Amino acid sequence: MNLTTEHANGVAIVRVGESRLMYPLLSEFATAVTQLIGAGERKVIVDLSAVGYVDSATIGCLMDLYRQAAAAGGALKLAGVQKRVETMLTMTGAQNFIEVHPDEPSAVKSFGA
Predict the structure, then answer these.
(1) What's the CATH fold of domain 3-110?
(2) What single string gives the DSSP state of each residue in 58-70?
């Protein structure tokens, strides 16, 4: 899976470099983010700008990661969400929980960084 992680202003940024984020890539993606949260990261951004398609399992996975971050006293936010992915987030109601930002800089700024 094409996944990179970097840190900027105290924020962990996970960039997904896949055009479709769905099974079987979800396991590797979820593990990477879960490890960041487990390692004490409290501000996590998932950059989905390369992702043009997600399925319902992906939405469930994002919601689970959001809950893990919140339970650890942190937050998980999305950046660079394409229209088709945004539609899935809206249809499932996930956007009522997960903050979505148009791009990475605005997502980082939302943490007050």
Answers:
(1) Transcription Regulator spoIIAA (3.30.750)
(2) HHHHHHHHHHHHH
